[in-house]
Amino acid sequence: MNDILKIEISGPVVITAAAIIGVGFFLVLFLRPSARWALTGITAIVVAALLGWLTVWIVEDVMDVFHVGLTPRVWFWAITCFAAVGLALVSFRHSPRWRKVVAAVSIPVFIVVAGLGINAEFGLNKTLGSAFGISTEGAIQLSKPDPEASIPAGPLWQSWKPPANMPAKGEVGTQVIPATASGFNARPAGIYLPPAALVDNPPRLPLFVLMMGQPGLPDPQYVSAALDEFAAKNNGLAPIAIVADQIGPDENDNLCLDTPKYGNVEKYINQDVVDWAKANLNILPDREHWTIAGYSNGGQCAISFAVKHPTMWGNVVDISGEEFPGAEDPAGNLAAIFGGNQAAYDAQKPINIMKGKQFPDTTAVFTVGSDDVTYVAAAKAVSAAARSAGMSVTYYEVPNGGHVGIALNAGLTKGFEVLYPRLGLSR
């Protein structure tokens, strides 16, 4: 079963899915048609397709559910699904039994196939398991760090000599990080150990803590893919990465704050995760080598934590992040979390926290899809405030990256391009 869940939702799977929906269409519409049935079927397709177009338009433009523009392929899959289901529904009327059976089987198939196509377009769930919210990673084995291990006097790349038996790629898995101080209900964290961490007498390495979007899984696939590429070019050197769960199993937008409503999220990430990392991972101890990062919801959390805990985090990577906690529903969060206290809410916004302060030894990377209009505005505003507050800021727009996997992958790549020299992993 786990092997099935690990199947990647990529081009071949989507092409196969498209073929399935095409076969279903053919069987229901064209097998032994009468003139009356052909007219009925074509009418159903047109009407359902128009209904699909109207639904997507309302969801995207009127309700702005996703807060980003949907690509033409997403529109195609959604409209095709409506058309196919519409055809299947009219097949139950005045038709032979075999057509009813084909139609009944086709409806769930059409919906699943369209869902796979849309998911592949967003590119945020790489496998069947992640598409259904199921982690396919097993527990990763960790070796206790040596507290007496030496810390290199200069950049690690200068002194590190990889052994001949070093693995070509890193390892990924999960670990339960106890919520000892916070009590927050978090799912197991994703862990990535680079090749240099998998040898005898490994060096101490930088720490990279990543938080994904909401909804989403603490999935290490994206960061591991990016870091394996960088490690291959740098003698196996890469940060040890934790993909921490900041939203919990209910996948609430908890604003990454400590609140009675959602629990102590901020304390979980900045105390429980950090304490666990110190005790269980062979990491360098200083803030210069520690990075807090996030995508979308996690991006907002990352910049918020960086400015609230500057003595801990020396680097921050904000990928397509929101401008402030709960930016998708500020009025609702003002009422539900802050009891209508606007001043208390404003005090939690990163731009306001940075006012009048300086962060002279913090490296910040902000990335966003160039066509991700809402988040471009947020990234520009927050990055400008960070630059004014003395951070070393890199701002990068991913060409036509949207708010999907393209933006996430390119954001990670840009982040590591900037951070590798800072972390002592490359020239």
Automatic annotation (TrEMBL):
* Entry annotated with the keyword ATP-binding: no
Provide the GO MF annotations for this entry.
Answer: acyltransferase activity, transferring groups other than amino-acyl groups
Report the protein name in the record.
Esterase
Pfam families reported for this sequence? Esterase (PF00756)
Keyword list, A-Z: Membrane, Transmembrane, Transmembrane helix
Transmembrane ranges, per UniProt, are 12-31, 38-59, 74-92, 101-120
Domain of life of the native organism: Bacteria
Q: Which InterPro entries match?
A: AB_hydrolase_fold, Esterase-like, Mycobacterial_A85_antigen
